[in-house]
Amino acid sequence: MHIHILGICGTFMGGVAALAREAGHRVTGCDAGVYPPMSDQLRALGIDLIEGFGADQLALKPDVWVVGNVVSRARQPDGSPRYPLMEAILEQGARYTSGPQWLAENVLHGRHVLAVAGTHGKTTTTSMLAWILEHAGQAPGFLVGGVPVNFGVSARLGTGRGFVIEADEYDTAFFDKRSKFVHYRPRTAILNNLEFDHADIFDDLAAIERQFHHLVRTVPPSGRVVVNGLEESLARVLHQGCWSEVRSFGAAVSDYTAEGDPGAFDVVLRGERVGRVDWDLSGVHNQLNALAAIAAAEHVGVSPAAAARALGEFRNVKRRMELRGEVRGIKVYDDFAHHPTAIRTTVDGLRRKLGPDGGRILAVFEPRSNTMKLGTMKSQLPWSLEQADLAFCHGGGLGWDAREALAPMGARAEVGDTIDQLVEMTVAAARPGDNLVCMSNGGFGGIHGRLLEALSRR
User: What pTM was estimated for this model as a whole?
Assistant: First the structure.
C-alpha cells in the first residue's frame, strides 16, 4: 500500500510514517516546516519528503491520503486555500483518513495498547513505560512524541503483544474533532495529570475533562486506569464513571507512592517497599512519571522491582533537559517545555539538581504553542519562572505584550523581538557557571547552536 501523509514532520505523524514504513508500506509525505529530529529520522528511513502542500502532489495517486491535524480548510489573505492539496483531494473524492484512525486500524488492532495521557509528561512517561517493557523482554511496539535515547527512534512495531502510545488530547483532524486518544482503545490507560491547555480548540477545563472521560469509557472491564491521585480534575473525570480497575499514584493515600529524593527513591505499594529507583533524572514530576509507568507495567506482568531496576538505566528523551553543549563553563540545555506548569517544573527540577551552589539558571523561552500565542496563560509566566535567576522571552509574533506580562519580574526578565536580539541579550548576561535552558515546542530558530557559537566568540 502507498500512503501519502500530509503534515508528516509533526512528532505524531512522523511516528505513523515510521510505523507504516516498517510494516512494508510505501510512504511519502509533505509538510511546511521541516526541522530535526523528525526530519532526520524520516530521511534515514528512506521516506521521500515534499516541501509544501501543492495540489500537484495529487499525481502521486496513493492508495490513501493520511491527513494530520495541522491541515485545515483555512484560506490565505488573498482568498486562496492554505492547503491546496487537501482541497484537491476533497474535489476528486479520493480516499483519506486521519493519522489516529489509520493507526488504530492498521497497527493497534489486536494489540494490548498501553496509552499515556496527560497535559504534561506524556512523552517522558511513554518512553519510561516502553523501556520498562523492553528491559523485561516484552519487545513492545511504541509511538512516542519524541526520540527516547534508549531506543534512538520515536516509533517501532515491536514483536510483542504490547504497544505503548503517547495519547494526545489534541483533536484528530479538521474532519474529526474528537481527541486523538479516543481512537486507541487501550487496555491500560495512564491519566498523568490534567490542566487547561489547547485554548485554540477547548473552551475550558471541563471540555478537556469530557474528552478524558471518553478515553476512560473505552477501557475494557479487565483493563486498568492508572490515575494521579493529586489531581482534582482527574477525580472529576473518574467520578463521571469508570468500569475498569483503578490504580492511583502520587498522593499520600495512593496505591503507589515514593519515599526519598526524586533522584533516588523507594517505590511503595500500599505501605510495602517494592523497588528502588536510582537514576540521573531530577524533579518531582519525573518521580510521578516513574510511579505511573511502574503501575502500568505491573498490569502486563512486570513487577515493580523489575520496573524500578529498568528505570535505573533510563536515559530520557531528546529535548528533555538535553545538554546541547558547554562553552567557557556555560552550559546550554534544550527542553520541550512550553506550558507554564511545564516551564516551572523544568526549571524547578534543574534547580533541585544543581543545589544551592550549582550556578545560575537563565531561562530562554518562546511562547510558541497555540495556547501561549493566544495569551491565555500569559499571567502565569512570572510564576512559572520563579526559580530562574534571569528570563529571556522571544516576544515576536505574539498578539499580546510579553514585556507587560513579565513586568512583575522586574529586571530579572528581558524580551527580544527577534532571535538575534534574544541571543545578544542572553550572551551579554551569561557568565561562567551559568545554565542556559532553552524552552520551546518548536525548533526555536536554532537558538541553541547560535548561543553556543556566540558564547565561543565572546
Answer: 0.79
